[in-house]
């Protein structure tokens, strides 16, 4: 069940100008099957930006243990959240690109993935062949990390170096938008809206994708930017310090990752008698396996077993305010 590449704009004819915007997300399997998940994980986990262990150690572990054991398990998780149009990450990224196309009618807007399809390198080449001279790349990672944003930068740099006409191309990339006023307001408004429907007395937990602590120790600004984003959103909501906390989810492998983990934080909240928790994941631009399966299903079930009620606040996805915020962010780069 391949996801259809969304490299066509939502309107029937592509805007004629020479500027294009590429919104890039991580990538996701093409089907909720062990084979498709294995292909995806193999490409992803071969990226040295993601796993920097020496290859003679990592490749045997990856090929003989992680891929064969993890792929069927993760395929079942994808199957539990699969949508009509494909993986949620692909569907929502495509929808967001379309919303951005509507917000920026003078610019060609396309979506791309760092791993899998539509492959970023191919999308960039397609735009070059179309005659787009200025290409703005927007990685859908509000907080910068070498494991995500810099990896997108690697593809862009390789493309620029290999282009037959490099001087005819102007490539620009957004590094992060963790404190962008429009984005902070959009996240805060989505939380407010959710709480209006459900009552606003729950503890607010900001859950970000984790990262090996080693990355931060060698200079990755990710943790600092997550903390700044959470504080800015909490301030926009007028929350007291005691009304919110921050944690990290989706740990992978055995080394130490950023703490506290979302799982431990929920356990500690339950032990303190906090039974109503709203979880928001502002590190994820769109919903995906990590938010829908891990948080909204697994962690919510675990919290319910402790007598609590976890309400998951969806990512911004293709909300018009999200598209407007991102359009405002890239506006100055579009020329
Ligand atoms: C060493 C491994 C990993 C690092 C480092 C890492 C960083 C990182 N990832 C995201 C965003 C996403 N990750 C997603 C899935 C995912 N992540 C890892 C591993 C690392 N991530 C794996 C193995 C997987 C696949 C699922 C699994 O096997 O458990 C996703 C969702 C993809 C989807 O299809 O839905 C996103 C999004 C960030 C932001 C980040 C560093 C800050
Ligand atoms: Fe390998
Ligand atoms: Fe990840």
UniProtKB/TrEMBL annotation:
Give me the segments passing through the membrane: none
Major enzyme class: lyase
Its subcellular locations are: Cytoplasm
- Which pathway does this polypeptide act in? Porphyrin-containing compound metabolism; protoheme biosynthesis; protoheme from protoporphyrin-IX: step 1/1
Q: Where does Fe(2+) bind?
A: 209, 290
Q: Which Pfam families match?
A: Ferrochelatase
Catalysed reaction equations from the record: heme b + 2 H(+) = protoporphyrin IX + Fe(2+); Fe-coproporphyrin III + 2 H(+) = coproporphyrin III + Fe(2+)
Q: Which UniProt keywords apply?
A: Cytoplasm, Heme biosynthesis, Iron, Lyase, Metal-binding, Porphyrin biosynthesis
Enzyme Commission identifier(s): 4.98.1.1
Q: Name one GO molecular function term.
A: metal ion binding
Q: Which GO terms describe its cellular component?
A: cytoplasm
Ribosomal protein is among the record's keywords: no
Single GO BP term: heme biosynthetic process
Family, per entry: Belongs to the ferrochelatase family.
**Purpose of the protein:** Catalyzes the ferrous insertion into protoporphyrin IX.
Q: What is this protein called?
A: Ferrochelatase
Q: What's the source species for this entry?
A: Marilutibacter maris
Q: What is the lineage of its organism?
A: Bacteria, Pseudomonadati, Pseudomonadota, Gammaproteobacteria, Lysobacterales
Q: Which gene encodes it?
A: hemH
């Amino acid at each position: 069940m391949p996801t259809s590449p969304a490299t066509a704009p939502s309107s029937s004819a592509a805007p004629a100008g020479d500027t294009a915007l590429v919104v890039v997300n991580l990538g996701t399997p093409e089907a909720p099957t062990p084979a498709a998940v294995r292909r995806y994980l193999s490409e992803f986990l071969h990226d040295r930006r993601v796993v920097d262990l020496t290859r003679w150690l990592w490749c045997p572990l990856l090929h003989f243990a992680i891929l064969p054991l993890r792929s069927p398990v993760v395929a079942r998780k994808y199957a539990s959240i699969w949508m009509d149009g494909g993986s949620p990450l692909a569907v929502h990224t495509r929808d967001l690109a379309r919303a951005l196309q509507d917000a920026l009618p003078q610019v060609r807007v396309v979506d791309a993935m760092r791993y899998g399809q539509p492959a970023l390198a191919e999308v960039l080449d397609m735009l070059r062949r179309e005659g787009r001279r200025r290409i703005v790349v927007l990685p859908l990672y509000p907080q910068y990390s070498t494991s995500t944003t810099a990896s997108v930068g690697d593809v862009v740099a390789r493309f620029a170096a290999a282009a037959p006409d490099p001087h005819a191309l102007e490539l620009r990339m957004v590094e992060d938008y963790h404190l962008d006023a429009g984005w902070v307001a959009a996240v805060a408004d989505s939380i407010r809206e959710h709480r209006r429907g459900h009552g606003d007395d729950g503890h607010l937990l900001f859950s970000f994708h984790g990262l090996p602590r080693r990355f931060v120790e060698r200079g990755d600004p990710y943790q600092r930017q997550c903390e700044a984003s959470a504080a800015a959103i909490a301030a926009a909501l007028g929350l007291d310090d005691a009304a919110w906390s921050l944690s990290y989810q989706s740990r992978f492998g055995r080394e130490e990752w950023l703490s506290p983990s979302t799982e431990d934080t929920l356990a500690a909240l339950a032990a303190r008698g906090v039974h109503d928790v709203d979880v928001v994941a502002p590190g994820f631009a769109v919903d995906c396996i990590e938010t829908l399966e891990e948080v909204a299903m697994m962690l919510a079930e675990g919290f319910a077993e402790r007598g609590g009620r976890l309400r998951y606040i969806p990512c911004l996805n293709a909300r018009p305010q999200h598209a407007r915020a991102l359009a405002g962010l890239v506006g100055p780069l579009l020329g």
